[in-house]
Write a structure and sequence with these properties.
alpha+beta, four-stranded antiparallel β-sheet, extended
Length: about 625
């Protein structure tokens, strides 16, 4: 939620200062200017210090985000290999430079302005639709940020926004510039055109032997078998160990008693929770409810809707606190509770429906419980077996010997490309889709002791490279038909391009378009009005760009939007509409151009700050922090 707080306090200003304008510094390799004494400062830029706590927090956020993107958690060692720590420090330094430069301008934000910004932050609204301090503290606690750090960060942001607002004052788009851009964007053209399909150049004869051999050598990449690798894989997963794990009836019954709450279906209740600012307000509302007044009226007076107080159907453990749960589950259907003090303030509860729970039985869940226990034990045992396997590999045992001892299998694959296919681009049957498997195979050589990989299912895999087949050019006699077909395809494209180009040259010299079209048996078509931004299955972006580069009456050619045909076009008309300063589109364009100029102005200043201020890095502190992370 802390990220949401940052987003809510930003807008276009933050997008500029925190995105486009934060040019990451190349902070690595700089001399350790802090050497010789201890410091909690990781880096300093123009008097703006970056603490070790800030650095760790930024790294943790980056690791979390990256882990979510790749779908698996990263260790700090892996994060370092991906360059995440370097990127985190670069981002912090990149932000500190503008802060240092802006501070020199004398801009500041007072306590009143800071407080107003926080209490009006929509991300900090509580149950009553107003700023709630408990919501703020809970958010900061979850993010691992103390209140002092949050206030300092928010104050810096407000100073950045003040700087951006100041720099943007008086910057607006000149009318002549807006008019020019509007005319450029809205100019339309109508073209007469013919479509030249590949067949327009007629049949392509086979090349002679000399031409064929020369093309075969030139286009060898198309007829070369890719490098392939032979390798063996041994896997160890929890399911491989389940057959050897036994669970006695007594142990199963004990486990059921300990875990029966996992199988019992709990009672659930449809609950409405009406929040109040004070206990006095809650008691007053309670008195009104007991006189028969509708709760909807009270909810409306609080500025809330029915959906705001509806918790849905929940179990006891899903309630926000034990006290509220006890009160809700003591009510009968239709009853209102006395005011209850909750962690976010007093509430009154209303139960509208009850779904009874259903207790489990030992016989009913025995098989499922046994499978769960066996899987849990197998998952734990995997680690021990993995250590045994590593000991065996260190002692020189082969995968085959290790597999035999542990009742595992070794599967061999031959002739596998980097893409996981055969050299003929066919799929490999049974090839596991383990992350980084093929990358590992192709960066290793036969004889390398490759560390185990993660199967993604709580297990490990071991891969051994058995052999390499380098890329090999297929003999001409084997691919002769393919070489001829590809040569003909490229020859037809070249001839079609030459034909279109010759028609354009003839047209620009004054020859009638009707005459040229008739000689080819093609019909002249007329396009609708086309803008520079237009694109369709008929008119590709390339064809449109060439059409707009030609004068009225001039010729141009280009590819169709879909397919292998070409267009030969003549500009029939050009319409340069006069800008309508009163239209909504024109006003939006004027605002967009003005915003762009403001962005450029701010970017220039911030880039200047970054050029003038050089970062100073506490390399020794970083190394100590990295060493500590590695040992954890």
């Amino acid at each position: 939620m802390l990220d949401a707080l940052r987003r809510s306090s930003s807008g276009w200003i933050a997008k500029i200062l925190m995105g486009l304008l934060v040019v990451s510094f190349a902070v690595w390799g700089i001399a350790d200017i802090f050497g010789g004494y201890s410091s909690d400062t990781v880096a300093s830029v123009g008097g703006e210090n970056i603490s070790l706590a800030q650095y760790e927090r930024e790294v943790n956020n980056e690791v979390k985000d990256f882990s979510q993107r790749i779908g698996q958690p990263l260790t700090r060692v892996q994060a370092r290999e991906y360059g995440i720590e370097r990127r985190a420090l670069s981002q912090l330094v990149g932000i500190a430079a503008p802060d240092a430069g802006i501070r020199k301008t004398g801009l500041a934000v007072g306590d009143d302005a800071l407080a107003h910004n926080i209490v009006t932050d929509p991300q900090l609204v509580g149950p009553l639709g107003k700023f709630d301090r408990q919501t703020l503290l809970l958010t900061l606690r979850q993010a691992g940020v103390n209140e002092k750090t949050f206030l300092a960060d928010r104050r810096k942001f407000l100073v950045r926004r003040q700087f951006a607002d100041t720099m943007g004052l008086g910057v607006s788009a000149p009318t002549v510039l807006t008019d020019a851009i509007s005319t450029y964007q809205n100019e339309t053209r109508v073209a007469a055109y013919i479509v030249l399909p590949p067949a327009a150049v007629g049949a392509i004869a086979d090349p002679d032997e000399k031409t064929l051999e020369a093309y075969y050598e030139k286009a060898a990449i198309h007829f070369t078998r890719p490098e392939t690798r032979d390798f063996s894989i041994m896997t160890l997963e929890p399911k491989d160990l389940t057959a050897s794990i036994a669970v006695s009836e007594d142990d199963l019954k004990k486990a059921y008693e300990q875990r029966r709450n996992e199988f019992d279906i709990p009672e659930k209740r449809a609950v409405e929770q009406i929040p109040f600012a004070t206990m006095e307000a809650a008691k007053a509302a309670d008195a009104r409810l007991r006189k028969g007044e509708a709760s909807s009226k009270i909810v409306s007076e609080l500025g809330l809707q029915e959906k705001d107080v509806d918790l849905g159907t929940v179990s006891r453990t899903q309630m926000i606190s034990p006290a509220i749960a006890d009160a809700a589950f003591a009510l009968k259907v239709g009853e209102y509770s006395d005011p209850v003090q909750g962690p976010l303030g007093p509430v009154i509860l209303h139960v509208t429906a009850v779904t009874p729970g259903k207790p489990s039985t030992y016989e009913g869940v025995k098989d499922r419980l046994k499978a769960m226990i066996v899987n849990d034990q197998a998952s734990s045992e995997v680690y021990n077996v993995q250590n045994t396997i590593e000991d065996g590999r260190a002692g020189g045992s082969s995968l085959e010997d290790i597999a035999a001892k542990n009742n595992l299998k070794v599967v061999k694959f031959t002739g596998v490309t980097k893409e996981g296919q055969t050299s003929d681009r066919k799929p490999i049957a049974g090839l596991p889709q383990f992350k980084d498997l093929l990358e590992t195979v192709y960066k290793s050589e036969a004889g390398d002791q490759i560390p185990p990989g993660d199967t993604g299912d709580g297990g490990y895999y071991w891969v051994r490279v058995d052999g390499t087949t380098p890329p090999q050019l297929k003999p001409l006699k084997e691919v002769r038909a393919d070489v001829i077909a590809l040569w003909k395809t490229e020859k037809r494209k070249a001839d079609l391009d030459a034909l279109a180009q010759s028609l354009v040259e003839r047209g620009n010299k004054g020859e009638s378009f009707d005459k040229m079209a008739a000689s080819l048996g093609r019909t002249i078509l007329t396009s609708p009005e086309i803008k520079r931004s237009s694109q369709s299955d008929t008119f590709s972006r390339i064809a449109v760009a060439r059409l707009f580069a030609a004068p009225k009456g001039g010729f141009a050619y280009g590819p169709v939007g879909f397919g292998d045909s070409l267009l030969v076009m003549q500009v029939k008309s050009i319409d340069d509409p006069k800008p309508d300063a009163q239209s909504a589109d024109y006003k939006q364009l004027h605002d967009d151009v003005g915003s762009s100029l403001q962005n450029d102005m701010i970017a220039t200043y911030v880039a200047g700050f970054q050029l003038q201020l050089k970062p100073e890095i506490n390399v020794r502190l970083l190394q100590r922090a990295e060493s500590a992370d590695t040992q954890q």
